[in-house]
Design brief:
Elements: H1 3-20, H2 29-51, H3 61-82
Helix pairs in contact: 1-2, 1-3, 2-3
Length: 85
């Protein structure tokens, strides 16, 4: 997966994660994209370590589930660190 598709995945996954956590994450779309991309990295790493799967392609359901799950985790930790509610 290329850089542009990875950033797009991060933006969308971060937006979905913000909806799941009821907007606890960063404010701007740039912050959402960066936190979402970080979440995609975390989700890909955890998926590889725990389940033996990785971020394959942009249109893979596994990729989306890992990216969204990682983004929820990153946004939750971010909200704990910054004290946002």
């Amino acid at each position: 997966m290329g850089l542009i598709s990875f950033l797009l995945l991060g933006l969308i996954a971060g937006s979905i994660a913000k909806r799941i956590l009821k907007d606890q994450g960063g404010g701007s779309w740039v912050a959402t994209m960066l936190l979402g991309a970080a979440g995609a990295i975390v989700g890909g790493w955890l998926g590889g370590e725990l389940f033996g799967v990785s971020l394959r392609s942009f249109f893979s359901l596994t990729t989306w589930l890992l990216a969204i799950g990682g983004s929820v985790l990153v946004l939750f930790v971010y909200s704990l660190i910054t004290g946002r509610k």
